[in-house]
């Protein structure tokens, strides 16, 4: 059973509608629906609120561990924590570090979310312009980075039990390495990440991630590398689309285009979707809020299908209006969909941006 399915099950047991749970936790019913359908992952802060409203432990929602849900000590800690102020929560975290023997390298202020820790680092190190360089930031923080010459089973590993924290990186695409370093810095800075070793798994989509620490580290990394405030400033002069996303990724933020497209979709979720596909299979979809569910395999009529069916020998972008059924599952009404799809033989997959015009 997935995270979303467990939330749905416990919500129904409590007799709450999606609208009621959304009202109690400060989000829309549509957002709750997207979480339950595994179309979107909740933040750590929202998960805390949901677990409190459903009277279940955070551990149960994330892992499905029923024992954690039934353990009276876990229930007591979960219930008490919501009444602690920030200073008391910090004292509790410090004591947990003592109990677990986990080394803590930085005495950072206590915040409620991973995003706030990313903002704190940007302020503390006075980073006000892109690109944000996580390798340089790690060096300033006293973190050693080791490039492995052997193939690893993971994108990267963080060890934080020695005199200084060490990040071991697998060989690979530079933007992925930068994101991995940023994730590891998140594990290092967020004080309740009290394990001595953290991994970033290979080829795991963020929507498939159910480990709460990994979800938070991804949120941290995304905001550290592409701060929402800086990106919004850039979009004032650059229109949305594949060309703009590619330029921002390569020339301004030094990140992957996926991070740029995902962040834009999050802020324009009722009219846009961002996808990647390999072969005919759509392997990543950022469609939360889009008015209709999108297909899982490329369909005739889409520009992405044309690029897959007849792949060019060099990078190519196709743009234009496409039929509704080229992208929408079982459409009930026609939509005015404008598609932009990019294929680059160097990467071997297609990036697609959809807009409702």
Automatic annotation (TrEMBL):
SUPFAM superfamilies from the UniProt entry: lambda repressor-like DNA-binding domains
UniProt xrefs under InterPro entries: Cro/C1-type_HTH (IPR001387), IrrE_HExxH (IPR010359), Lambda_DNA-bd_dom_sf (IPR010982), Rad_response_metalloprotease (IPR052345)
HTH cro/C1-type domain residues: 7-61
Coiled coil: none
PROSITE patterns, A to Z: HTH_CROC1 (PS50943)
Family from the record: Belongs to the short-chain fatty acyl-CoA assimilation regulator (ScfR) family.
PANTHER family linked: ANTITOXIN HIGA1, BLL7220 PROTEIN
Full protein name: Helix-turn-helix domain-containing protein
Lineage: Bacteria, Bacillati, Bacillota, Bacilli, Bacillales
């Amino acid at each position: 059973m997935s995270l979303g399915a467990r939330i749905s099950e416990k919500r129904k047991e409590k007799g709450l509608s999606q609208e009621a749970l959304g009202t109690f936790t400060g989000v829309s019913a549509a957002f709750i629906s997207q979480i339950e359908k595994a179309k979107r992952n909740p933040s750590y802060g929202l998960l805390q609120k949901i677990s409190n409203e459903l009277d279940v432990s955070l551990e149960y929602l994330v892992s499905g561990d029923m024992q954690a849900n039934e353990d009276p000590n876990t229930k007591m800690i979960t219930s008490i924590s919501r009444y602690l102020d920030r200073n008391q929560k910090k004292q509790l975290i410090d004591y947990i570090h003592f109990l677990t023997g986990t080394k803590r390298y930085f005495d950072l202020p206590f915040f409620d979310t991973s995003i706030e820790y990313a903002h704190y680092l940007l302020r503390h190190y006075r980073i006000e312009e892109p690109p944000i360089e996580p390798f340089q930031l790690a060096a300033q923080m006293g973190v050693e980075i080791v490039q492995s010459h052997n193939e690893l089973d993971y994108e990267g590993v963080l060890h934080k039990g020695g005199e200084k924290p060490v990040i071991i990186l697998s060989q690979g695409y530079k933007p992925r390495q930068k994101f991995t370093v940023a994730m590891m810095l998140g594990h290092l800075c967020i004080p309740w990440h009290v394990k001595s070793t953290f991994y970033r798994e290979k080829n795991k989509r963020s929507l498939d991630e159910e480990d709460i620490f990994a979800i938070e580290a991804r949120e941290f990394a995304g905001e550290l590398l592409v701060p929402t405030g800086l990106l919004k400033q850039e979009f004032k002069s650059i229109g949305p689309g594949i060309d703009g996303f590619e330029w921002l990724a390569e020339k301004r933020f030094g990140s992957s285009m996926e991070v740029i497209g995902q962040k834009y979709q999050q802020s324009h979720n009722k009219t846009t979707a961002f996808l990647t596909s390999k072969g005919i299979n759509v392997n990543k979809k950022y469609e939360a809020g889009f008015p209709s569910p999108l297909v899982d395999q490329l369909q005739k009529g889409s520009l992405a299908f044309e690029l897959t069916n007849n792949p060019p020998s060099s990078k190519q972008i196709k743009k234009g209006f496409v039929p509704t059924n080229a992208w929408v599952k079982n459409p009930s009404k026609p939509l005015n969909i404008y598609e932009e799809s990019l294929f680059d033989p160097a990467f071997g997959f297609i990036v697609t941006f959809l807009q409702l015009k």
